[in-house]
Amino acid sequence: MSSKQGSLSITSENIFPVIKKWLYEDHDIFIRELISNGCDAISKLHKLDIMGEVSLPLDYKAKIQVTVNPEDKTLTFVDNGIGMTAEEVDKYINQIAFSGATDFLNKYKDKTSEDQIIGHFGLGFYSAFMVADTVEIDSLSCQEGATAVHWVCDGGTQYQMDEGDYDQVGTKITLHLNEDCLEFSNEYKVREVIEKYCSFMPTEIYLNKANAPEEYETIDASDLRETDQVVEEIHEDARYEEKEKEDGSKETVEVSPAKDQRKIVKRPVPLNDINPLWAKTPSDCTDDEYRDFYRKVFMDYKEPLFWIHLNMDYPFNLKGILYFPRINSEYESIEGTIKLYNNQVFVADNIKEVIPEYLMLLKGVIDCPDLPLNVSRSALQNDGFVRKISDYISKKVADKLSGLCKTDRENYEKYWEDIAPFIKYGCLKDNKFCDRMNDYILFKDIEGKFRTLPDLLVKPKESEAETSASSDPAEDSSSDSKSQDGQDTKGDSSDGSNDSNRSDDSDKRPEAKAETEENAPKEPEKKTVYYVTDEQQQSQYINMFKDQGMDAVVLNTTIDSSFITQLEQRNEHYQFRRIDSGLTDSMTEDVSDEDLKEANEALTALFRKALGNDKLSVSVAKFKDDSVSSLLTQEEEGRRMQDMMKMYGMAGMDPSMFPSNETLVLNVGNELVDYLFKHPDADRAEDFCHQLYDLAVLANHPLSPEEMTAFIARSNRIMLALAK
Question: 69 and 207 in contact (C-beta within 8 Å)?
Fold first, then answer.
């Protein structure tokens, strides 16, 4: 085959069906496109007026008029913008995808900017053929001596263009709707679409119904405008009443003053706000305006917590307002709305390329003329620039939140329960956001006070100082009760009992241990933050913490498990441990392993036999609180992995891969435990073992239905035995 070169050929027969059927996903978008074209025509006229190329009348008022006519099955769009000559119609309408906006900008590139020009691709007009069998254009250019032009096309590739009789500068587009789209001749349907796409377009938009009866309104004469059409002058005389005075005499008093009113033809009311709040300078906006705007746009009558006004000119033009709504549920059930605009023209809701996923939980509007939109202006083109915008929005949110925490801590704490899902989800999704918010994340402790991570943690140097100073056990316990999180500094951070939960290092000779530690590289010392997932279920553990002056924070949502793992990965100096992950040394008496060895062996054997579980992990310790008989501890890592498997529905994985390593810890200082140690063959020993185990489980997590049934029956037997 011989080599061949040439130009690609695109004909109207090829591309017109594509424009009509597949360019736009929503057929109602044609209203946005035609109104946008009208706005552009008016913007061009204003720019020519500023440059002195045209002279607008003193009473000129830019507007777009939309008229529905159900009888004629038509929909009409009229603008009083720049208008078109026959040559311009031939150039911009007859040549598909030749943008008049782009041509205008190129012509006046040294005298104007594209900030307020909406269209760039030259395809919006053809969206009219998605709903119309025939489209007519009547236009008169603002050029001096211009002649009106009339254009008509029946939806095919043929058109008719003649000299017209349109007598006002601007353009009128008439759509003769097809039978499938007659809904767009309904006033309420068109109003709905205009409010959806055009609520903030820069030119006032009016809607009326052809041949509708005239509507009137009555106003005070003092409020009359020159443009009002007076139908009737109304005068109301003053009204008087006779009233009795204190001395019994009567007098006539005026109860209603005289009024002069005018009955006028009802003033047209635009459907849009041409000066949206986000386009204003933040210092010029009041709190009431922000709240009113929120209620108007999102139909949410719960006041937002607070808001962020975005106002950036460099390196890109971006304005907007983000609201933090009041939320009382967890993050996965929250649905926000971020409305994206381009030059005040609605583009879409919640475009993920611009708005970070975790900020989709917010409500707000963003207007960015620099967005790289596709030809339908309904989606974004892939562009690295978009990522920069997303990063900027994320940074502004973090700056706002950190600023609140530093300067308005009281309100920040009030907001926390509502904004916590945003922040935690954001930390999981965005490492930069996590780093920015690290020191401003609040944790509610078991006393009901809010604290940040810096509040909870002791810095590494301080930890080293505490460790070197804590040689005496009594002193260590005392100082521990005053520390910020109650973490013991003696080296054992698991459960403090004399069992397998302790480090194996406790069995080594002191000389060998010292030699090993001297040669081994030192890892950064970690501070432990204890947390509670269920304040009611874990109340026994909480009381023990409070008794020892220790602290813990409440983390009771499903996102918290993933959240604290993320924090641990990004902060090497601390770790999170659930309050039941083990006993601290401050909760137990300092008793040697030898003293507890006999009790440990005997009680382990007894409980394993009574419960029929030879793998049951049992340890003993002497609690400072003798009233507590038993506790169940769970190794943190294994339990956390099991929780994550449940959360993410990893049904195919074997939970035994990550055992929780439950340990029954018995208090040898408790009378009942001591009785079982000394009387393992007692008549009720087996029931007592079961009961102590179930009580420990109940303080940790709910019993299964079968276990609860057995627990109740056993409790009744024990009470009956005591009653005899």
Answer: no
